[in-house]
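chain below, 279 aa
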Amino acid sequence: MPELAYFSPAIRPLLMLLLLATFVHLDLHQVWQGFRPQALLIASTNIVIALGWYALLSPIDVSLGRLYFITAIAPTAAAAPAVIGLLRRNMEYVTVAVILTHLFVGLSVPLFSSWLFEGDRSANPLPMLQSIAILFSVPLILAQLWNRLPEPWRSRLNWRQLSLYIWAILLTLASATANDFIRHEEGLSTLAIAAIAVHALIICVVNFSLGRLLGQWLYQGRLDREVSQSLGHKNTMFTVWFILAFLKPSFALGPMFYIVFQNLYNAYQIMTAHPKASS
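prediction:
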């Protein structure tokens, strides 16, 4: 249903609502207690990987370098701590990674995009920074206000269940927008779309694998799964919104395919960690 692309402006408020559903369960005091200085390295590594892809590929193909950059720079997904919890690992560490990567990416992606995507729809970093600041600050403030309400009021709304429906609607609208673009973009062949899928798979494999290696090096293997999840499990809906708002829609295909591969791997992790429960 590519006609649903007409409702693509709803992606931003829905993304803010999804962040609100995440932030209402966030205990800032507990997160601060679980903070590890090495988590700053993970957040900065997320950006370094994206810039590394661009530096490696842009001399060959600038568009390919841009695709790798905007797909790889996505922050850690809000669902990453839940997946780590299912694997019975350290949720606090990944929660810190969620906050730090969103902060780092939110501040850096407008600056880098104005440089790397110069000449595209919008190369001015100030409107980008303003939009991202509103995107994150409003849900965070509303979440703190929500948690001050009386418990009987708060218990009437199941934010975890609601977030699933919001995510499904977001994915539908993003898919419809990408589908609509594919239908109207004459220069985008089936082979080109398949190539973008392969590139997204490469980025996904590298992120999870590099995270595992980095975790083994930093923590002697104790937090290898946590670091892998922090670098590999991406909030791709953030980058899809950013692309549709400021860049060429064709770049949104990279994060869209990334969603498929990261969720396949997450399902595999959960299945192999608890084979009896999954069966």
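The CA atoms of residues 26 and 219 lie 25 Å apart. DSSP finds 14 helices and no strands in the chain.
thats it, cya
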